[in-house]
Amino acid sequence: MVAGNGLFYPILGFASCVAFIYMSFGDLSVSYQKETELGFVTRNGNQFMADGKVLYVNGWNSYWLMDNAVHDYSRPRVGAMLEAGAKMGLTVCRTWAFNDGSYNALQISPGRFDEKVFKALDHVIAEARKHGVRLLLSLVNNLQAYGGKTQYVKWAWQEGIGLSSSNDSFFFDPSIRIYFRHYLKAVLTRKNTITGIEYRNDPTIFGWELINEPRCMSDPSGDTLQDWIDEMSAYVKSIDKRHLVTLGLEGFYGPKNPKRLTVNPEVWASELGSDFIRNSEKANIDFASVHIYADHWFHDHKFEDNMKFVYKWMLSHIEDGDKLLNKPVLFTEFGLSNLNKDFEPSQRDKLYKTIFDVIYKSAKRNKSGAGTVIWQFFVEGMEEYNDDFGFVPWEKPSLYKLITEQSCRLARVHGLTQYNANLKVLCSQRQ
pTM for this structure? Predict the structure, then answer.
């Protein structure tokens, strides 16, 4: 989803944020006296594996972590969010490992990086490691927020070497592809100034997401995007053979896939230059990603109609993971807008429960529905970063209860509660 840049950081609110966390989760110092040891996440057919155990993900998005880690007065939000997520039994946080040419830019211009911002990303990874949370790091945005593919095209155009001013030239312009490969190499081989570990050797990183919500509408056939996927996934694997790689898809079926007629939300979804099966099936893509935003994809559906779609949408992709891809399917964004005309807070509870139930049934049956990643969480005092989907989890008791219950029941399916200190404490309270 679109998430704009926050240019100002209100200091007020952090103390109350800590108070809220304390009241909701108790003494946060418990369970963190010793750093959690993490192993690399791998794939065994249609399932994630971690430390020799099957892993089903209950996670969340906080895209803003690196941005807030840049400055002293906003940096404590990072640790507070990761600590709170860990205490909720959440195991994966998806966040941006990019900021191209904008405020607090990591990449100032092609191949030029702001060391202060890179140290902020170091801090995010170190804090995640400290709290036993793995990070799914996204590497560029299809949207304009935080630079995205638009910024790469601008750089090439400004240097007089761009083939086109179209945003989609990000995918086909050889010069821009070189820019992006240089960026990938810089990030993957970065040595963390806090932990001393190169990113490519750090098991704190769950995996790499090539691009958030890729679309190449100038080529509906999908050939342009697929060529880019093949090149960039192979390039990442040539540098980093230890981490999983995913694309970052929304999950739409392309013009040659029969499911475009029966599962896609509307006709437009098959004309975006992407295809869930084609883009996910190559060997260098380790797991498939899907988003769930029925209320944004349909223009005239009521809530109950959207719920029926969500159920069908998830089962279709899980079926693909089992029968066609033999890969895990991770639902890396989902949410419900509070700007919908008929919005009621209870609708979010119903949506979350439906989605969580599908994943729980998948876990019980050893199916490919490998987990969910909520869009999105904040701590207090961050309204400038929020959108119509995000919330502070401890301010929503019914959602908090659903989320923590999902953490425990997923962990119990494969006996993970005894291996994770946070889950052991959380789930013993919920017997």
Answer: 0.92
Per-residue pLDDT reduced to its tens digit, 354-411: 999 999 999 999 999 999 999 999 999 999 999 999 999 999 999 999 999 999 999 9
Distance CA 189, CA 200 (A): 6
Asked if residue 229 lies in contact with residue 279, where contact means CB atoms within 8 angstroms, the answer is yes
Q: Are 162 and 169 in contact (CB under 8 A)?
A: yes
Sequence-separated (6 or more) residues with CB below 8 Å from residue 244: 41, 42, 43, 48, 206, 207, 208, 286, 287
Catalytic residue flag (residue 333) = yes
Contact (Cβ atoms closer than 8 angstroms) between residue 48 and residue 368:
no
Distance CA 23, CA 21 (A): 6
**Which helix (H) or strand (E) is 308 found in, with range?**
helix 303-320
Helix (H) or strand (E) holding 42: strand 41-44
Closest among 287, 247, 263 to 56, alpha carbons compared: 287
17: helix, strand or coil? helix
Burial 84-120 (b: 16+ CB within 10 A, else e): bbbbbbbbbbbbbbbbbbbebbbbeebeebeeebbeb
Q: 83, 127, 209, 213: which is the annotated catalytic residue?
A: 213
What is the helix (H) or strand (E) element at residue 399, kind and residue range? helix 397-413
Choose the catalytic residue: 83, 127, 209, 333.
333
Region of 136 on the Ramachandran plot (φ > 0 left; ψ -120 to 50 alpha; else beta): beta
How buried is residue 152: exposed, middle or buried, by Cβ count under 10 Å (0-12/13-18/19+)?
A: buried
Question: Can you tell me the distance from the alpha carbon of 39 to that of 41, in angstroms, rounded to the nearest whole number?
Answer: 6
What confidence tens digit (pLDDT) does each residue in 106-123 have?
A: 999 999 999 999 999 999
